[in-house]
């Protein structure tokens, strides 16, 4: 990346989060915290901050493009009195997209705080399905690299002040891997991970537990629907064979792995889990996770809590569910308040 931006440095270890997380009634327990957005079907109204569509081509010669929505105004884009806050990029999770409720909710919190915001669709997700032949996976960090390279060319004034990133679930895993591999090439000032699967194998085992049957069935149905004709042709699988897959492991082993050069699901999990990458991260990065997350075992965060890097800090809460953290604060989820605080801290 050609931009030479002085990176802000702040002491993440001395940063103090807001008041301790307390569940909001009636959303008590990990499952209800996880399901709240789905049950209420509520997402933030972003109409006060009009957006424009971005299309950024990937650098692998596939012709695939990532589609994003950029919320920015004249104050963000330069000139006298321009707002100097960094540009915030939001990255969704498995079967999500830029319009997922948790993405829109975080966008609203940051837009109200004066940040320009990009809501990115991963390769083949949401509106990006028509712009890509292939599909994202948990370790496709080069897609994030290519997106930021393209973004810096299309929006140099916005990127000139630096970048802050927030990733959720699978998108957070990709983001953490990207920070370790490519973070030094970009003017990144801070990052926040929410409910990342640091150990993909442990997450797969948890997702296939009998108590998570409904979750797995829901996700698997959406994963099958997202699978493109081009991916099936690449690996020589029929649509009928795809529909016959019975669980997430089979999907990872027979779709994700062969389509992306892995020897199988186990190889994919081993090479793409973000946990082993944490010590190589040089950007102030906050990890937020809940022990009662029904999808991702809290014990997988034990190595993160022991990471010696001064740049990575982990908040492992007793409660909060999966990308939940619906607390008693008014107007925003607890993790969104943390995101706003960290990003404002990066500006100081």
Q: Could you name the key traits of this structure?
A:
alpha/beta; Rossmann fold; 8 strands; globular
Quick description:
With 348 residues, the protein is α/β, with parallel strands linked by helices. 36% of the residues lie in helices and 14% in strands.
Describe the structure.
The chain is of the alpha/beta class. The protein has two domains: 22-199 and 277-347, Alpha/Beta hydrolase fold, catalytic domain (Rossmann fold, 3-Layer(aba) Sandwich); 200-272, no CATH class. The protein has helices at 30-40, 101-112, 141-154, 156-159, 170-182, 200-207, 213-226, 229-235, 239-243, 248-259, 265-272, 302-305, 334-347, and strands spanning 51-57, 65-71, 87-91, 117-120, 163-168, 188-194, 285-290, 312-317. Strands 1-2-4-3-5-6-7-8 form an eight-stranded mixed beta sheet, with helices on both faces. The longest helix is centred in the middle third of the chain and has 14 residues, at 141-154. The two termini are 24 Å apart. The model is unreliable at 1-6 (pLDDT under 50).
């Amino acid at each position: 990346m050609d931009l030479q931006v002085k990176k802000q440095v702040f002491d993440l270890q001395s940063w103090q989060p807001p008041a301790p997380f307390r569940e909001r009634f009636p959303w008590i327990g990990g499952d209800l915290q996880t399901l709240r957005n789905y049950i209420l079907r509520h997402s933030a109204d972003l109409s006060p901050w009009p957006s424009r569509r971005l299309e950024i081509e990937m650098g692998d010669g596939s012709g695939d493009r990532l589609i994003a929505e950029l919320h920015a105004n004249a104050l963000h884009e330069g000139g006298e009195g321009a707002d100097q806050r960094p540009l915030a990029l939001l990255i969704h999770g498995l079967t999500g997209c830029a319009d997922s409720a948790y993405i829109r909710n975080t966008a609203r919190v940051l837009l109200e705080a004066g940040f320009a915001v990009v809501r990115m669709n991963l390769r083949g997700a949401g509106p990006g399905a028509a712009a890509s032949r292939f599909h994202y996976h948990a370790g496709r960090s080069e897609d994030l690299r290519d997106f930021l390279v393209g973004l810096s060319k299309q929006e140099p004034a916005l990127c000139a002040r630096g970048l802050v990133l927030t990733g959720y679930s699978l998108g957070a895993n990709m983001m953490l891997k990207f920070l370790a591999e490519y973070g030094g090439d970009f003017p990144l000032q801070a990052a926040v991970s929410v409910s990342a699967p640091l150990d993909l194998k442990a997450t797969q085992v948890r997702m296939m537990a009998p108590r998570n049957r409904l979750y797995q069935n829901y996700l698997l149905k959406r994963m099958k629907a997202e699978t493109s004709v081009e991916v099936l042709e690449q690996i020589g699988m029929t649509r009928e064979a795809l529909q016959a897959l019975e669980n997430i492991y089979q999907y990872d082993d027979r779709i994700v792995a062969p389509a992306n050069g892995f020897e199988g699901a186990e190889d994919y999990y081993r090479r793409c889990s973000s946990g082993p990458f944490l010590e190589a991260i040089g950007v102030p990065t906050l990890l937020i996770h809940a022990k009662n997350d029904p999808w991702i075992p809290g014990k997988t965060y034990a190595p993160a809590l022991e990471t010696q890097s001064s740049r990575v800090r982990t908040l492992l809460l007793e409660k909060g569910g999966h990308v939940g953290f619906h607390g008693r604060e008014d107007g925003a989820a607890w993790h969104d308040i943390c995101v706003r605080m960290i990003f404002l801290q990066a500006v100081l």
